[in-house]
C-alpha cells in the first residue's frame, strides 16, 4: 500500500466548516486565496486556466489559456490573448468568422470531457450520492475505487477544505489518472484529500480506527467483499452508499448486508434524467437519453451489539426460493387454461374439438 496526502486530513472537529456560522465562507472575499481553487473559478480569465469554447452548432472545445498561443480549427484561428484578462461569457470570433462562447467548464462539463481510465460516475449519480448519503462539510469519508476520480471531485466539493476524504484504489495506473484529473480541476492538491493504492479491505483498517468514519462510498465490482471492513470503520449511524451497474450485483450486496446483521434495511434506486428540447413551440423531451448508468444502494451502521430490526413486512412469497425458480416465484401471474383456449380461438389456432390438444411428437 502507498499512501500520499497533500496535507494531513483534518478531523471534522479540527477546523471551521466552509459554512461555519459567524464567519464568511473562506473563499467569498474577492482576492482571498481559496485552497480548493475557488478564487481560480471567479474573475477574469487567466493564463493556465481551462476554458470551454462552444461554437454556433453547440460543439465543445476545451483549451488551456497560454500567452501568445493560438486556437486553430478548419474555420480559422484566434489568439488566446483575446480571452486572457477578459470575463467569462465573452465571445471571440475566429479569422474564419466563427463565434466561440468562452466559459470556465463546470464540474459536470469537466468530468464528461476529462481523460478516463475506468468508467466514471456521471454527474446525475454523483449528485444523488452526495445528497442521499448526506455527505456534509467536515465529514470523514472513505471512497473506493477511485477509477478516474470523477466521483472523488464531487465528494471533495461536499466535504469541503476542512473535511476528510480518503480514496483507495487498487490500480496504481488508475490512481495516477485520478490524481491528475483531480489536481487539474482544483488547480493543485486538495487539502482534504488522501489517496492510497491498495485493496480497500487491506488499506481501510490500517488508516481508520474502528467506528471513526462517517460515510463510505463504494464504486467497485464486488462491494460485498468489503462488508466486514466497512462495518469496522463506520461509526454508528454512518452511511454506506454503493454504486453498482447490474441488478445481480445489487441483489448480492443487499442480501449479504442483511445476512451481516450490522446494517439497517438497504434502500435501492436508480435515477433517470431526460433532457428537454426547447425551441419556440417545439418543447419536448430529447429523442435520446442515457437509459442506464447504475443502481445506488444505501444502508446505515447499527450500534455495536444491536441487531438490525426484523422487517415488518414478510418477504414476498417465492422471493427466497428453496427450489428451482418458477414463474410464480418471479411474480408472473398464472394464465388459466380457459384464457389460453380463448386466445387460441381468437388467433384461429383452435385445438381439435374434443381431441387431444398436445402437439404431435416431432419426427
Ligand atoms: C468504475 S471504477 C470507479 C470510477 C470512479 N468512481 C469515478 O467516478 O471515476 C471502479 C474502480 O474500483 C477499483 N476497485 C475495485 N475493487 C477494489 C477494491 N477492493 N479496493 C480498491 N479499489 C477497487 C478498480 O480498480 C476501478 O478503478
UniProtKB/TrEMBL annotation:
Biased composition (Basic and acidic residues): 320-338
EC number: 2.1.1.220
Ranges for region Disordered: 1-38, 302-363
Domain tRNA (adenine(58)-N(1))-methyltransferase catalytic subunit TRM61 C-terminal: 111-277
Pfam families named in the record: GCD14, TrmI-like_N
Molecular function terms from GO: tRNA (adenine(58)-N1)-methyltransferase activity
A single cellular component GO annotation: tRNA (m1A) methyltransferase complex
GO biological process: tRNA methylation
Top-level division of the source organism's lineage: Bacteria
Keywords: Methyltransferase, S-adenosyl-L-methionine, Transferase, tRNA processing
Entries under PANTHER family matching the protein: TRNA (ADENINE(58)-N(1))-METHYLTRANSFERASE (PTHR12133), TRNA (ADENINE(58)-N(1))-METHYLTRANSFERASE, MITOCHONDRIAL (PTHR12133:SF1)
Record's function text: Catalyzes the S-adenosyl-L-methionine-dependent formation of N(1)-methyladenine at position 58 (m1A58) in tRNA.
Subunit-structure text: Homotetramer composed of a dimer of dimers.
Protein name in UniProt: tRNA (adenine(58)-N(1))-methyltransferase TrmI
Amino acid at each position: 500500500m502507498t499512501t500520499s496526502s497533500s496535507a494531513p486530513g483534518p478531523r471534522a472537529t479540527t477546523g471551521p466548516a466552509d459554512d461555519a456560522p459567524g464567519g464568511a465562507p473562506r473563499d467569498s472575499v474577492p482576492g482571498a486565496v481559496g485552497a480548493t481553487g475557488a478564487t481560480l473559478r471567479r474573475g477574469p480569465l487567466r493564463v493556465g486556466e481551462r476554458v470551454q469554447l462552444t461554437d454556433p452548432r453547440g460543439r465543445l472545445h476545451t483549451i488551456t489559456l497560454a500567452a501568445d498561443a493560438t486556437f486553430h480549427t478548419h474555420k480559422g484561428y484566434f489568439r488566446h490573448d483575446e480571452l486572457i484578462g477578459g470575463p467569462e461569457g465573452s465571445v471571440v470570433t475566429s479569422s474564419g468568422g466563427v463565434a466561440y462562447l468562452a466559459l470556465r467548464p463546470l464540474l459536470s462539463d469537466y468530468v464528461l470531457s476529462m481523460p478516463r481510465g475506468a468508467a466514471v460516475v456521471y454527474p446525475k449519480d454523483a449528485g444523488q450520492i452526495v445528497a442521499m448519503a448526506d455527505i456534509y462539510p467536515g465529514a470523514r469519508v472513505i471512497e473506493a475505487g477511485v477509477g478516474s476520480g470523477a466521483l472523488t471531485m464531487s465528494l471533495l466539493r461536499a466535504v469541503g477544505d476542512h473535511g476528510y476524504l480518503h480514496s483507495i484504489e487498487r490500480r496504481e495506473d488508475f490512481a495516477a489518472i485520478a490524481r491528475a484529473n483531480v489536481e487539474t480541476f482544483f488547480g493543485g492538491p486538495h487539502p482534504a484529500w488522501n489517496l492510497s493504492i491498495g485493496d480497500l479491505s487491506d488499506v481501510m483498517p490500517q488508516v481508520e480506527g474502528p467506528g471513526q468514519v462517517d460515510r463510505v462510498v463504494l464504486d467497485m465490482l464486488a462491494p460485498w467483499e468489503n462488508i466486514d471492513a466497512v462495518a469496522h470503520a463506520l461509526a454508528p449511524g454512518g452511511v454506506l452508499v454503493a454504486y453498482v451497474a447490474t441488478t445481480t450485483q445489487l441483489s448480492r450486496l443487499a442480501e449479504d448486508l442483511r445476512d451481516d446483521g450490522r446494517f439497517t434495511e438497504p434502500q435501492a434506486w436508480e435515477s433517470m434524467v431526460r433532457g428537454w428540447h426547447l425551441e419556440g413551440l417545439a418543447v419536448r423531451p430529447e429523442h435520446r437519453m442515457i437509459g442506464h448508468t447504475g443502481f445506488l444502494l444505501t444502508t446505515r451502521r447499527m450500534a455495536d451489539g444491536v441487531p438490525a430490526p426484523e422487517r415488518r413486512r414478510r418477504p414476498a412469497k417465492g422471493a427466497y426460493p428453496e427450489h428451482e425458480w418458477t414463474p410464480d416465484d418471479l411474480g408472473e401471474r398464472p394464465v388459466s387454461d380457459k384464457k389460453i383456449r380463448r386466445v387460441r380461438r381468437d388467433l384461429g389456432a383452435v385445438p381439435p374439438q374434443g381431441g387431444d390438444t398436445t402437439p404431435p411428437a416431432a419426427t
